[in-house]
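Support request, priority: normal
Reporter: lab tech (M.K.)
Component: structure prediction queue

Hi team, I submitted a job for GAF domain-containing protein from Anoxybacter fermentans yesterday, and the status page still shows it as pending. I've pasted the exact input below so you can check whether something in the sequence is tripping the parser. The sequence length should be 166 residues. Please let me know if I need to resubmit or if it's stuck on your end.
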Amino acid sequence: MYRAKKIKTDDKQLFYKTVNKLLIGQVCYESDWLAQLANASALLGHQMDEINWVGFYLLKNDELVLGPFQGKPACTHIPIGKGVCGTAAEKRKTILVPDVHEFPGHIACDAASQSEIVVPILKDGELKGVLDIDSPIKNRFDEEDKKGLEEFVQILAENVHWENIC
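Reply from support: The job had stalled in the queue. We restarted it manually and it finished. Here are the results:
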């Protein structure tokens, strides 16, 4: 059972060190991929400030398909190479967008979103999906978020039972 209180700190390194420890506790003892990703999105949704959407898009049939998330209803299918999520998946690198209105081809699922970060999930070099986080504030995400969220995704890459995703 999740019992952690909200992490209260302005130190992003400490924040991500703590949230990533919480993630390890959640995913290492669970074997169901859906439960793992659902709790991972809930963990970030509960702990991160100034966000309006957090969740996963999973690679299925050469496109990204909506997975577990926290927030308003979202786009369900995203082609590889389209929008921030599809671009991060295609390039297999994290994309940090300070202002989504300046990103060519941005897919607006929630009009409140102003900035975004998308981290690809790679397991043994193979794309499994992306972690997508939106904020209603411009310039919400920085290099510390990028580093901390890449570590978060690496924990997932190593512990989620990807072979069971249909």
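The mean pLDDT is 92. The first strand starts at residue 53 and ends at 60. Let us know if anything else looks off. Ticket resolved.
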